[in-house]
Amino acid sequence: MPTLPSDPFVLHGSCFCQAITYTLSLPALASRPLLDFKSKNSIGLQTETDSHLPIMTIDHCNTCRRIAGSILQCWLILPFSWASFSLLLRSDASSTERIEASAKDCVILSQSLLEKTHIRYFQSSEDRHRTFCGRCGTHLTFFAGKEGEKWGGHFDVTVGSLEKESVEMVVAGRQGWVVDGIEWVKKLVRVGIRGFDFVEEEPLEVEKEKS
Question: What CATH code would you report for 9-182?
């Protein structure tokens, strides 16, 4: 069955400190681009019954794992036109003034946004652009290739930066870069927690206070 709602829906996300927030507005299934899975630049099918954007994928890539500092990364791949960003200005520490920006301006950063806001980017390899919050460090987006090439009008959003209510609305439907995966992590994804002798622990008081 499809892993994403077929009706229009909206997802909200942000970095941890909320200096950068974003809204993803997804149209009804009939208005979502159909994936050309025969193309050499295809981003693949999400499930057999859901061949439209967006795609939600678990990523075993070594680079993404190390950059995220997590055993797995998870991406939502969607058109630029479905996303909008709100950015806190860096005028002073007490400022609450924000500016609105398009996804393209935030993913392929202009010098103006770098100077005025907390959004930052780096290239993990040639033509691989990744953005993050310069104030709290949350990783936010990924874009492969020069604008208009390869991935064209699509970019990736980190699913972990979505608000909890939004994450609960969507379910990952595919895995990528499995060949790079850590064996016990691949097993965890494949068979679930019942395949392990995990001990469930309550957080210590100091950890509760920290969170």
Answer: 2.170.150.70
